[in-house]
Structures are given as structure tokens and as C-alpha cells.
Amino acid sequence: MKHYGLGDKGTMAVAMALMVNRKINTVNMQGNNIGPGGMLYLEKMMCSNSNITELSLSDNNLGNFGATAIQSILTDNRTLSRLELAGVNFTDADAAYIAKVVQESPNLLYLDLSHNDFGDLSGDLFTEMIAENGALQELNLSWNKFRKTGAKKVARGLKDNAYLKVLNFAWNGIDDDGGIAFGKALKANEVLNTLDLTCTRIGPAGFMAIIESIGLNESLTTLKIGKNSIPEDAATAALQILRSYGTLRLETLDMTDVTFSSKFASDLESLREMHHNVNVMYGYSENYGKNKMNTQDILEEGMAALREYCTENGVSLVDLFSRFDTDNSMTITLEEFQEGLKDTDLPLSLYKMELFAQALDKDGDGEIDYSELVLYSKKWPWHTNGNSGVFKSSDL
User: Fold this and answer.
1) Domain coordinates of the chain in residue numbers?
2) Which CATH superfamily is domain 90-291 in?
3) Where does the UniProt annotation place the signal sequence (predicted)?
């Protein structure tokens, strides 16, 4: 029940129904304007219903009250395996309620804490949570406020962890010091297979520290480190280091949106001749202007994807916009729009979703107005194939 704007009263009704329902095991209440009142009912329901194994409360205003409720839920409900708490206004002060109980949760395998306000002050709590956890396999801490101090603490926990397989730490400003700390952690860690450090302000020193650690790491298969300041000489040196390894566990090196010259492509071929399974992704080459999608192209592709989604699912563009617009302001932030697109599983890469959102923001105010979406819908008409529930250009 994502993006229905249920509020506390609507959430109460859902919670009461789930108190007696023992067949449902997945509950998604993302983006429903749930506050303390609604969270109180969900807490009571979750503490008594052990059949629910997956719970999403992302994009609700949970805050401190929600953090204490989550602590209670995880204490009493020992069957929960997946918990999504992205964008719920958690701060450093709330980490005390979350970290310890997650650490002791026996079956929690996936935890999403992205798009919150955790930072360096809560770093020690996350150190212990990650190091001592005996179940968690995937943790998303992206889009928080960790800097190099907090990154060092998270990396310290990763160094000692024996269960975590996927860590997303993207979009935190950890700089080279943070990158170096993760490099040290990878030398000791034996289980992590995916690390995402996209857009974390890492420079050549941090990048090289991580690359050099790969030779001592036997588990990492995917490293995402794009949108960072990686000069071509550092990237070329990285390829040379990877070539020097007799065996290479790494399968994907993602340097999205980092641009190199055509010479880098030939160096990359030399790496692939030695390690056939490695896939290196990077930004546009020196003819960047020729290859980069222009605004017209990305708008056309994005609107076509939206049109196809609406047609296949029998929904209107109005309804789709309303799902994203949880506060009924007739505007959506670029971040909210991108998150909404991800939920629809549109056939667009994350990078194209970002470009599409930016292109729709015609006045550059950081928000997409409904009027802006209408404007582009007129330019690329919506054909309904007989489905009257889909938004038509003539209705605009």
C-alpha cells in the first residue's frame, strides 16, 4: 500500500486488520504520511504478529518516536527478515534505539536506513552494530551525513564483520581518509561481495587504497565508485594493479560518470585479456559532447517509459504524480521523483532517472511541478490503446 496517504487514522485501520490476519507476510506502508499515532498502532500489531517477515515504512515522518517503536518491534518480533526505513527523519540521537537491537536481531537479513540524518556522532554505534551482527547480510546507509570520521568507524565495523555481504555507503562525503579506511577494512574482510561508494568525494588516494586492497580480498565481486574525483592517471594505475593479480575475484568495477580518453579503453582491453570476467564501467570518453544524451533525448525516453508504465498498469499520469506527491503540494522534489521512478521499475538506469528528473525541472528550482509534467506530456502525446484510464494529451 505505497503512497496512499493513509495518515494515522488509515494506518490504524490497516494495523487492526493485520492484528487478526495471519496469511500476509509482507507489508509495505511506504509514503503514507505515518506519524507517531499511526506508528503506535503498527508497533502493537508488529509485536503480536510474527507472520510478517518484511516491513517497509520508508518515506514516513517517524522521527524519534518511530525509532523507539522500531526498537520495540525488533525486540518482540524475532522473525522479521527485511526492514526498510529510508527517509524517515532518523538522526544521530535515534541510532541508539536502532543499532543495538539490530545487532541482536537473529533473522534480520536486510536493513535500509538510507536518506536519513545519521552522521559522525552515531559512528561508534554503527561500528558495533556492523562488527557484532550475526545475521545482517545487506545494509544501506547511503544518502546520510557521514563524513570521514563516521566513515572510519563504519569501516572499522566492516573490518570485523563476518556476515555482511552488501554495503551501500554512497552519497556520504567521506573524502580520501574515508576511502583509505575502507581499503584497510577490505584487506581484512572475508565475506563482503558488494561495496557502493558512489559519489563520496573520494579522490585518487582513497581510490588507490581501495584498489590495492582487492589483491588481498577474496570475496569482493562488485565495487561501485563512480561520480568521484578519479583522474585518468589513477584509473590507469588501477588497471595496472589489477593486471598484476594472478587471480581476480572482482567482476564489476563501476566508475560511472568518470570520464577518460580513448587511451583508457585500450588499457582496459589489456586487462580483459588477462581477466576475462571483469567488467569496467566508466563515463563518457573524450568525445563527451557527442555521446552525452541531450535534454531532448532523455525527456523523450523518460516520457516514453512513463507512458508505457501507465498503459500497462491502467493508471493515469495524475494518479502516478499523486503517489509521489505525499504532501499534496502539487510539487515533487527531484529526489522524491527519482525514488518514485525506482519503485515503478521503469526501464531506465539510475543515471538516466537522475537526468530525467533534472530535465523535467524546467525552472531549476529543485522541484518538479505538476504543470511542468503536463507541459512535456503535451509534447509527447499519450496513446491509450483503448484504455481510458491512462492520461491522454487531449485531457491536459
Assistant:
1) 90-291, 295-395
2) Ribonuclease Inhibitor (3.80.10.10)
3) none
Largest CA distance in the chain: 64
pLDDT for res 392: 38
Distances (CA, A) of 223 to 16, 124, 186, 256: 44, 25, 11, 11
Domains 90-291 and 295-395 fall in the same CATH topology: no
Q: How far apart are CA 134 and CA 163, in angstroms?
A: 6
What is the SS3 string spanning 129-162? HHHHCCCCCEEECCCCECCHHHHHHHHHHHHHCC
How do beta strands 367-369 and 331-333 pair? antiparallel
Which element (helix H / strand E) includes 26? strand 26-28
Q: Who's near 180: CB < 8 A, 6+ residues apart?
A: 205, 206, 209
Whether the Cβ atoms of residue 227 and residue 198 lie closer than 8 Å to each other: yes
Sign, CA dihedral 144-150-154-155, equals: positive
For the stretch 179-233, pLDDT in tens is 999 999 999 999 999 999 999 999 999 999 999 999 899 999 999 999 898 999 9
386-391 long-range contacts, CB within 8 A, separation 24+: 387/311, 387/314, 389/314, 389/315, 389/316, 390/307, 390/310, 390/311, 390/314, 390/315, 390/316, 390/317, 391/310, 391/316, 391/317, 391/318
pLDDT given for residue 380 in this prediction? 52
Alpha carbon separation from 389 to 102, 316, 323, 370 (Å, rounded): 44, 6, 16, 18
Q: What phi and psi, each to the nearest 5 degrees, are found at residue 222?
A: -135, 125
Number of Cβ within 10 Å of residue 275's Cβ equals 16
Query: Which of 365-374's residues contact partners 24+ apart within 8 Å by CB, and which partners?
Result: 366/333, 366/334, 367/331, 367/332, 367/333, 367/334, 368/331, 368/332, 368/333, 368/334, 368/337, 369/330, 369/331, 370/321, 370/325, 370/330, 370/331, 373/317, 373/321
Element of type H or E holding 252? strand 252-255
C-alpha cell at 138: 545487506
Which CATH number applies to 295-395?
A: 1.10.238.10
The amino acid at residue 275 is: H
* Full DSSP string of 86-144: TTS--BGGGHHHHHHHHHT-SS--EEE--SSB-BGGGHHHHHHHHHH-SS--EEE--SS
